[in-house]
């Protein structure tokens, strides 16, 4: 079993529990926003990630850091949830739990998740135009564009919609030319 598979198996019940609680209170959007801000903080701070993943760090200090960072920015239930993850030594799965929560929430709301990998950040007009084209391609009414920078693409972009991949990157085109030249 791959590590990613294992992480998803562990993360799914936690994400589903969060969704069930949020649905019972009719605050899915609030939790989505708060969990997204936690995910953003994790992705922007490699030090925070390393600290939470460190098995030698004492749980009490992990709880203290989480309280200082998020206590006044998230709902009490989410704060308690984070502390339970620390107690159960599952805080290392936090990123996967949040991603799973968002994925399930988007499915519930019929939102198509589109991953965009580009060498440079797209401006608002480019994102809007791309979103409109994707809506036409997928017949979806709502699109959630998740942008990630990948400087190895040189230029252009790669779009992932479920299992479908559209490669409009410069490195992709160069690789195709290389394969063609090597074949002849």
TrEMBL record:
Coiled-coil region: none
Gene Ontology cellular-component terms listed: membrane
Keywords, comma-separated and alphabetical: ATP synthesis, Hydrogen ion transport, Ion transport, Membrane, Plastid, Transport
Subcellular location: Membrane
One MF term in the entry's GO annotations: proton-transporting ATP synthase activity, rotational mechanism
Domain of life: Eukaryota
Gene3D superfamilies hit by this protein: N-terminal domain of the delta subunit of the F1F0-ATP synthase
Protein name listed in UniProt: ATP synthase subunit delta
Lineage of origin: Eukaryota, Rhodophyta, Florideophyceae, Rhodymeniophycidae, Ceramiales
Main location: membrane
HAMAP family named in the record: ATP_synth_delta_bact
Family per record: Belongs to the ATPase delta chain family.
Entry keyword annotation includes Transport: yes
InterPro entries found in the cross-reference section: ATP_synth_OSCP/delta_N_sf, ATPase_OSCP/dsu
């Amino acid at each position: 079993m791959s590590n990613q598979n294992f992480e998803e198996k562990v993360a799914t019940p936690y994400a589903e529990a969060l969704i069930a609680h949020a649905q019972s209170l009719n605050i899915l959007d609030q939790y989505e926003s708060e969990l997204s801000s936690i995910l953003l903080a994790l992705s922007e701070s490699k030090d925070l990630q390393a600290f939470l993943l460190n098995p030698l760090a004492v749980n009490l200090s992990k709880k203290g850091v989480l309280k200082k960072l998020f206590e006044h920015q998230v709902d009490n239930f989410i704060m308690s949830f984070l502390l339970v993850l620390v107690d159960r030594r599952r805080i290392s799965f936090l990123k996967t739990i949040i991603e799973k929560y968002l994925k399930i929430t988007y499915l519930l709301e019929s939102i198509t998740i589109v991953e965009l990998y580009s060498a440079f950040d797209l401006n608002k007009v480019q994102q809007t135009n791309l979103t409109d084209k994707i809506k036409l391609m997928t017949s979806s009414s709502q699109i959630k564009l998740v942008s990630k920078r990948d400087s190895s693409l040189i230029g252009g972009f790669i779009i992932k919609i479920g299992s479908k991949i559209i490669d409009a990157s410069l490195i992709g085109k160069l690789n195709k030319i290389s394969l063609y030249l090597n074949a002849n």
